């Protein structure tokens, strides 16, 4: 007779486990050493958690690797770490990131209201860099100019189209600007070239015609962005080298150009099997920039990076409880959750994104193949495949037992895309949101950032 297979055995056989962020003790899961079952007992489910120290850990890790590579390659430029506010605009995220003296990357006019409040709270200084990206509305342009006139002299609007430069004509003193390259998209896309940025062939003429002789505009930055992020694939390196070629060509006629901005972030873990060599990739980026610049006879630029998901993604998790089990036919078992996947994790529904999903309890129990169903009445509210395999396995549930499970590394974009605190499908409320900090090793503090959304708040939005 076969030996009984526990869920713990499945994980240990499939992955290198435990890992830095995940371990199992006494039949339950710990994430960043957090006692998740104790948190569930106190706050219930569904529940959203943000582990604030992870944000600082990610920033410090990237800085350490970039600065180490700069030293090892005898690279002459400096490194600057930036946070993309669009990944998560919450105040607790900005405050944690700004503890580490990062610059901010903006994408709308409203970002400046956040920056204004951060400056008033002495969390952000006027001397810090602000990089302004995106196709800009008049309101966005006006906020950029207003901030510059109010003393934010290290603001850098990145030109996204040929006409944008004309909108800074009211500037009465020198302001730094940048240009974004319109990179070619991956072959799988329905279009060839990014809708954002300026075409390769237009960059030098734009500088020559509208920037070179303008005493109030200084071309400081060339922005290179790949939507799929930094990956060790031919597509990335091909576009990267094309961008370096443009940088060198522009530098030869634009002496004040001194910065290359590597947009598109480093990946985060969406599977326990993830194996991204951060040190190798960063060293390759530094060394390739150095080699290209030396071959072209131009100075090595300062390097800016804008990391959004990398900064905040691994700080978040969403926990659900299983409300019940449904056997719909002879092969399909559904675990029905007490929340909605499409509401709380919209990338699961919209992009077929896969996150790390693990049970919180019952690691000593047998397991089976299941489908996860959200509580809405929508056929798309489900999850049936992990990142590493095309199935989901979870512990079996006996009558009277309760199973809890978590989706991890969900801290980027999910709240924004789902419209946090607004109207959700089937009028399901936004879950409670708990912030976790760590004062000393394994000594945690918990703060309720938001209670579960009330019916009254939703009815008010709906006009009742």
Characterization of this structure:
The structure is a single chain. By secondary structure, the protein is α/β, with parallel strands linked by helices. It folds into two domains: 7-52 and 316-462, Lyase, Ornithine Decarboxylase, Chain A, domain 1 (Beta Barrel); 73-307, Alanine racemase (TIM Barrel, Alpha-Beta Barrel), CATH 3.20.20.10. Helices cover 31% and strands 24% of the residues. Strands 4, 13, 14, 15, 16, 17, 18, 19, 20 and 21 form a ten-stranded mixed β-sheet that branches. β1 and β2 form a beta hairpin. α3 crosses α9 (278-296) and α7 runs parallel beside α8 (234-253).
What labels would you give this structure?
Lyase, Ornithine Decarboxylase, Chain A, domain 1, TIM Barrel, 2 domains, eight-stranded parallel β-barrel, globular
Tell me the overall shape. globular
Strand content: 15-25%
Strand count, sense and barrel status of the largest sheet are:
10 strands, mixed
CATH class of the largest domain: Alpha Beta
Number of alpha- plus pi-helical segments: 14
Approximate helicity band: 25-40%
CATH topology of the largest domain: TIM Barrel
Q: Distance N terminus to C terminus?
A: 63 Å
CATH architecture field of the largest domain = Alpha-Beta Barrel
């Amino acid at each position: 007779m076969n030996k009984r297979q526990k869920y713990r055995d499945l994980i240990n056989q499939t992955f290198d486990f435990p890992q830095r962020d995940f371990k199992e003790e006494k039949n339950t899961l710990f994430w960043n050493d957090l006692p998740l079952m104790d948190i569930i007992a106190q706050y219930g489910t569904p529940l959203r958690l943000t582990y604030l120290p992870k944000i600082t850990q990610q920033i410090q890790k990237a800085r350490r690797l970039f600065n180490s590579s700069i030293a090892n390659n005898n690279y002459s430029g400096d490194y600057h770490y930036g946070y993309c506010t669009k990944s998560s605009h919450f105040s607790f995220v900005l405050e944690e990131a700004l503890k580490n003296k990062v610059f901010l990357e903006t994408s709308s006019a409203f970002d400046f209201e956040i920056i204004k409040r951060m400056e008033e709270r002495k969390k952000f200084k006027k001397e810090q860099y602000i990089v302004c990206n995106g196709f800009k509305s008049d309101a966005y342009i006006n906020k950029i100019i207003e901030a510059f006139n109010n003393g934010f002299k290290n603001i850098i609007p990145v030109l996204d189209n040929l006409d944008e430069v004309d909108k800074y004509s009211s500037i009465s003193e020198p302001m730094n600007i940048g240009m974004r390259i319109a990179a070619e998209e991956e072959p799988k896309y329905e279009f060839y070239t990014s809708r954002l940025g300026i075409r390769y062939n237009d960059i030098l003429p734009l500088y020559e015609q509208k920037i070179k002789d303008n005493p109030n505009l200084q071309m400081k930055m060339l922005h290179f962005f790949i939507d799929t992020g930094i990956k060790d694939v031919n597509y990335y390196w091909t576009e990267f080298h094309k961008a370096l070629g443009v940088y060198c060509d522009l530098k030869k006629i634009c002496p004040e150009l001194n910065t290359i901005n590597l947009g598109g972030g480093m990946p985060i873990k969406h599977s326990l099997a993830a194996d991204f060599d951060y040190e190798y990739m960063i060293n390759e980026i530094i060394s390739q920039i150095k080699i290209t610049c030396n071959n072209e006879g131009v100075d090595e630029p300062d390097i800016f990076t804008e990391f959004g998901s990398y900064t905040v993604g691994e700080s978040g998790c969403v926990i659900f409880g299983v409300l019940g089990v449904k056997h719909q036919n002879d092969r399909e078992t559904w675990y029905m959750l007490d929340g909605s996947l499409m509401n709380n994790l919209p990338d699961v529904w919209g992009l077929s994104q896969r996150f790390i999903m693990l049970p919180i309890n019952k690691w000593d129990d047998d397991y089976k193949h299941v489908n996860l169903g959200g509580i809405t009445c929508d056929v798309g509210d489900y999850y049936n495949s992990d990142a590493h395999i095309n199935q989901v396995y979870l512990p079996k549930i006996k009558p009277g037992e309760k199973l809890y499970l978590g989706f991890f590394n969900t801290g980027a974009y999910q709240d924004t895309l789902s419209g946090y605190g607004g109207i959700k499908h089937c009028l399901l409320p936004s879950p409670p949101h708990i912030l976790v900090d760590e004062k000393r090793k394994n000594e945690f503090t918990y703060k309720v950032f938001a209670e579960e959304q009330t019916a009254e708040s939703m009815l008010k939005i709906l006009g009742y």
